[in-house]
UniProtKB/TrEMBL annotation:
Protein name: Uncharacterized protein
Domain of life: Eukaryota
Amino acid sequence: MPYENWLRTIEGFRLEKYIKKSKACKQVREKQQFPYRGGTSSYGSTAYKNNLDWVPTYAKTHTDNQGNWVDPVAEQNYVTEHTTGHR
């Protein structure tokens, strides 16, 4: 990255707008009970792109590349939703 671009990047990190959004995102991450592996895509976007219903989308976004659940709570939520239709 050119030095001038680096300086602009650092300036951006110091903007009040960036700091406010960063703090808000940090609070949201602290509330997460388990990891979400869908990246920046929402559930709806992931479901649409993969032509999946909500329950299979949940499984896709809460398992690793080998199909292992990222957290026991995520797995239990899936089992409950998949077998009863609600949590």
